[in-house]
Amino acid sequence: MKKPAAPKKQAKKNQQPTVISWRFAFVIVSLFAVFGGLIIRAAYLQVLEPEMLLEQGDMRTLRVKSDAAMRGMILDRNGEELAVSVPVQSIWADPQLVIRNRHKIDERRWHALADMLQISPQQLSDKIGADDSKRFVYLQRQASPATVDYIKQLKIPGIAFQQESRRYYPAGEVTAHLLGFTNVDDQGMEGIERQFNDVLTGKPALKTIRKDAKGREIEVLSQTDGQASNNIQLSIDQRIQAVAYRELKKAVMQFGATSGSVVVVDVHNGEVLALANAPSYNPNNRKNTDSNRYRNRAITDTFEPGSTIKPLPVLAALENGTATMDTVISTGYGPVRIGGRLVRDINGYGDLDLTGIMRKSSNIGVTRLALGLPTDKFLDMYYKMGVGSETGLGLTGETPGVLREQRRWGEHALATISFGYSFTVNAVQLARIYATIANGGVSYPLSIFKSHKKPLGERVVSEEHADNMVAMLEAVVGPGGSAKKAAVPGYRVGGKTGTAKKAGIRGYSDDYIGSFAGIAPISNPRIAVVVIINEPSGDYYYGGEVAAPVFSAVSGAALQLLNIAPDANDSRITKVSGVPNAG
């Protein structure tokens, strides 16, 4: 028997380990290291940088909601809406949701979405992109209600809608140059919309809320009240504006002109009742519109006024006592040499009184009046009437024109100024001059806003001489005058034609500006109207042919819309003295 082996097994069984295995030690140390690191990290985050955890939590649960503030309206003087904001929706996509659910989207719905957005399916995919970390991309801003309703029915995951507002202009191109327009973000870009953007734009009310994991609102943390937008009421009368634009557009097309402007001013307070330009544009749909059409020509474009400025040298002579209403000026029967250069009239008129000079638009007559004055007195009349100065409208882009100072004035330079050359004005500036004459010599700054308080005026011409000039301007429209087509049935009106060559790089070109500036009604002047027709083509380019008919139509309509009674038989204003055969 092999019994001696038993004690060896018993010894092995009773043997106890005295050293921990190195593997076991490694596991223990690793566990302690991991748990120690977690404890240290937790302590660091909880004690040293708790703000980061709060920020991460807030990013997931906090949201800021805003109640959109609609842009203020622009109204005409009678409260008619010229610019309003209408609610619309924009279509946007969450690229993350779209990409994750792209395989679930029926291709027919995807193609239908692309069709409604007027792009190809591939362009739609490119617009959303392949980056699933992006959460927002616009697909279409300010979509039509029909488009929004159709896309909602497609129920494509990741396609959502956002409430916005869109600017709408009921009068369209009629008021486009004055009002301007806004961009897709409802910010003013041109005209009144741009200049008074801060006034028209309100501040939305903000509310900070906390949402749960399912997107439900569970707590309102803070709330900030918004600021309502403000409406703006202009001095424009939409009815007169529409007539002015219609007649101007018709004349520009009829005479093949490059452009034109009409300005109507209330002479009692300087408020602009109409300001129109042609060609215009549709502010509701500016697609493919040349940016050159955005320019408000009535305030930005300057020109040499020609004969429309002739009332100023006549008034200067009356104001300084170098001429009276009975003064007779010899204009001769041919050109005269002034300062080494010829000054001529269309015809030879012989002797003319002041009324005859105005009626026949004699260049020689106003030249002799200008040269009979001290130079500073002659030019002072132009400055007092606002030549070279802004009108007070305050519209961005107004160019006041230029009357350059010279150390020594030659006779011919003064002569050319007297009949409307060698300096420039704009349409609103010319309208202010005639409004001052019509208002008895009191000048008001022009205003584009309706005011219930009469502005402070400045007397620049005596009432007597201003009234005499009003009567002289009536003679221009009457028999023997140069502006018979400016007559208004039932009303006494007056004004002055202008036909000026346009200056080019190499001197005066063959292009003309035909103009007419006038007032109505003569018995009690209420409005001043200026019509500018730029570069008429063909055989008709004189102001009496192209601009005077526009004045007639606009003035006639404006007087009726303002409920001004006809005064054709009114003789309250005494006719000015005249000389036999003066015109």
From TrEMBL:
Biological function: Catalyzes cross-linking of the peptidoglycan cell wall at the division septum.
SUPFAM superfamilies reported in the protein's UniProt record: beta-lactamase/transpeptidase-like, Penicillin binding protein dimerisation domain
Name of the top EC class for this enzyme: hydrolase
EC number(s) given by UniProt: 3.4.16.4
Family as reported in the entry's similarity comment: Belongs to the transpeptidase family. FtsI subfamily.
Pathway the protein takes part in: Cell wall biogenesis; peptidoglycan biosynthesis
Keyword terms: Carboxypeptidase, Cell cycle, Cell division, Cell inner membrane, Cell membrane, Cell shape, Cell wall biogenesis/degradation, Hydrolase, Membrane, Peptidoglycan synthesis, Protease, Septation, Transferase, Transmembrane, Transmembrane helix
UniProt membrane topology term: Single-pass membrane protein
Compartment(s): Cell inner membrane; Membrane
Catalytic site: S307
Gene Ontology terms, MF aspect: penicillin binding; peptidoglycan glycosyltransferase activity; serine-type D-Ala-D-Ala carboxypeptidase activity
Record-annotated Penicillin-binding protein dimerisation domain positions: 68-221
Limits of the Penicillin-binding protein transpeptidase domain: 260-554
Gene (UniProt): ftsI
Chief location category: membrane
GO cellular component terms listed in the entry, alphabetical order: plasma membrane
One protein family per Pfam: Transpeptidase
Organism whose genome encodes this protein: Rheinheimera tangshanensis
The keyword DNA repair is annotated on this UniProt entry: no
TM spans (from-to): 20-44
Catalyses which reaction(s): Preferential cleavage: (Ac)2-L-Lys-D-Ala-|-D-Ala. Also transpeptidation of peptidyl-alanyl moieties that are N-acyl substituents of D-alanine
Name used for this protein in its record: Peptidoglycan D,D-transpeptidase FtsI
Gene Ontology biological process terms from the UniProt entry: cell wall organization; division septum assembly; FtsZ-dependent cytokinesis; peptidoglycan biosynthetic process; proteolysis; regulation of cell shape
InterPro entries, alphabetized: Beta-lactam/transpept, Beta-lactam/transpept-like, FtsI_transpept, PBP_dimer, PBP_dimer_sf, PCN-bd_Tpept
